[in-house]
Amino acid sequence: MSGPTDRPFYAGLMFDIAKLKVAEGAKFKLRSIDPQETIGWDGDREEAQAQTRELNGRLEELQELLYAEGVHRVLFVLQAMDAGGKDGTIRHVLEGVNPAGVKVASFKKPSSAELAHDYLWRVHAQVPGNGEVVVFNRSHYEDVLVVRVMDLVAKDVWKRRYHHIRCFERLLVDEGTTIVKVMLHISKDEQRERLQDRLDRPDKNWKFDPRDLLAREKWDAYMDAFEDAIAETSTAHAPWYVVPANRKWYRNLAISEILVQTLEGLDMSYPPAPPDIRSMVIPD
Ligand code: AMP
Ligand code: MG
Fold first, then answer.
1. Does the pTM exceed 0.90?
2. Which residue, of 36, 118, 190, 212, has the greatest Cβ tally within 10 A?
3. Between β-strands 240-244 and 177-185, what pairing exists: parallel, antiparallel or unpaired?
4. Residues 35 and 246: beta-carbon distance below 8 Å
């Protein structure tokens, strides 16, 4: 991965994404991360917004290169509590990126057809092909998060899924996929404010789902489930980044940095032009 010092393309402030990464096999304590923090960033809000705009332009270029080269596949997994900012992140961070090469796959409560298969069946069907970026808005991690907290399957069933998930992601990586996983980490107070906003604002009412309140009641159980899922599945080849997400401007910057630095690390180039291209003439 290219580090902050060998980044030739824009003159931004340094942002060390390694500080957000969960190391494989390390003790990981979600509760030790303050959702209000701006880890890895010394600048202020305006500087962050300016840098995010620059990164957005670079992301646009990198995505075009990815598409043109048609070699790599990029999977970006986004998980968060309700109102954690998944939709807003996708809207802001991917703004201006050519929609032809980027797909968002949202995973809802499984349909009866989906439930009639193993839990990775619907997930595998959505992974990126050559030259594609796919963003998972929720993912197979729901099968060790909501499924665990709401007791939808027995403990021995969800427990063995960590192993499946590690193997599944290893398969994808071995076959040419780059995987980045991000948890947007908000505080319980921040969630209350955002859910209240959905009640108060007519233009946001549609986002309010009374079931989110049931999940909120189980906040601590969710934090335990997130902590275990991240600790069990953050690997060198498919790392988790935990992004403090109470401040949206920091969240947008951090995720833009994670995506841009990951894509820079792929070392891509445009495919070679046909040898005689310079002498070709477009007829009238
Ligand atoms: P939203 O993302 O707000 O549209 O909500 C989607 C809902 O689907 C959330 O409540 C998720 O927890 C739920 N969901 C997603 N995947 C699963 C799953 N595998 N099993 C049960 N519920 C799920
Ligand atoms: Mg919702």
1. yes
2. 190
3. parallel
4. yes
According to the 3-state scheme, what is the secondary structure of the chain?
CCCHHHCCCCCCCCCCHHHHECCCCCCCCHHHCCCCCCCCCCCCHHHHHHHHHHHHHHHHHHHHHHHHHCCCEEEEEEEECCCCCHHHHHHHHCCCCCHHHEEEEECCCCCHHHHCCCCCHHHHCCCCCCCCEEEEECCHHHHHCHHHHCCCCCHHHHHCHHHHHHHHHHHHHHCCEEEEEEEEECCHHHHHHHHHHHHHCCCCHHHCCCHHHHHHHCHHHHHHHHHHHHHHHCCCCCCEEEEECCCHHHHHHHHHHHHHHHHHCCCCCCCCCCCCHHHCCCCC
- Kindly report, residue by residue over 141-156, the tens digit of the pLDDT: 999 999 999 999 999 9
Find, among 266, 282, 131, 150, the residue nearest to 216 by Cα. Answer: 150
Q: 110 CA distance to ligand 1 centroid (A)?
A: 8
Closest residue CA from atom 1 of ligand 1: 108
Q: Tell me how far the alpha carbon of residue 119 lies from the centroid of ligand 2, in angstroms.
A: 20
Domains in the chain: ranges and CATH: 20-264 (3.40.50.300)
Contact in structure between 153 and 118 (CB atoms under 8 Å): no
Beta bridge partner(s), residue 136: 77, 105
Token pair recorded at residue 131:
């030259």
180 close to ligand 1 (CB < 6 Angstrom): no
